[in-house]
Amino acid sequence: MKRILVIDDAATVRLYHREILEQAGFAVIEAINGLEALEKLEMEGPFDLYLVDINMPKLDGYGFLKALREKDIPQAPAIMISTESSPRDREAALVAGANLYVVKPIRPEQLLPQVRGLLGEGHPS
Amino acid sequence: MALKKGQPTPPSHHPGERREPRNLETLLQTLLDEDAMKRRWAARDLAEHPAAAVALITRLKHETDATVLQVIITSLGCIANDVAIGGLIDCLYSEHALLRNTAIEVLKELPGPVAPHMGELLHNPDPDVRIFAVNVLESLRHPQVEEWLLEVILRDEHVNVCATAVDLLGEVGSPQSRDALRTLKQRFPEEPYIQFAADLALKRIGAG
User: Fold this and answer.
1) Which residues of A touch B95 (CB under 8 A)?
2) N vs C: which end of chain B shows fewer Cβ within 10 Å?
3) Which of A82, A104, A49 is nearest to B192 (CA)?
4) Which of B106, B158, B193, B204 to mutate to test the interface with A (most CBs of A within 10 A)?
């Protein structure tokens, strides 16, 4: 079963993503910010995909992705999720190492094809 | 070389140890030093000088070291006068995520000084700024928090602003939020996240 690390400081958002992804057959692990995500990475090894919010306390999504990409581990895909829709934010996310930049609100019918596509189970929409 | 008995021990200077005086003028000069460690010390010590608020805010626009940025924002939070609060609020408009997020964390701890600005922030034309304002409410210990959140979910037309507010209402909402949460669901019937979060909030409040 593919493991996805969901990183978001909002508990409701994490639960929402968990329900969508688990119903689709993925295993979900949660982190409340980038710092905790790095700790989970150390403890539980690399994940198959990272779903990353941008704005989080302690270590934001950009900081997490930068640290992730600097680690000597397989470069699993990362989807950066944000409320911000400007081209500037999208570009910053991609520069930081995101494979996809998705603007909230997240809909299951949009998210799942993107996740499966990045995991090699289809094509990202 | 052995020291002679009775000879004063020479002052030990550890790497990064401060030798500069801590008066306002010197600290303001050090805030512009090329050495990031010195700027960080100066920014920290300037927290005791309310008159330094303008200089700290000005430095924010040019500072490139992340740790110095964080210390400057923390010092502005310690000063917490009108100038400092204005500078922290301006960070919500920044394109710099670290700057924004650090300012949000500091503003959360300042309910008194932040409260007078909240109405204006929640009506800002930029939805991102309104979202950051709701983020500030997350742990702002102020009696109006629920009232502000209810206003957002009843009035704001941007789904992501409402989504951020409903997340928080699930944690701090009381039974008086029930009707507004049901209204929110009707306002965004096609948004799965709003339906999910509002249902969860209603369940937590005890009206599921």
Assistant:
1) 88
2) N
3) A104
4) B193
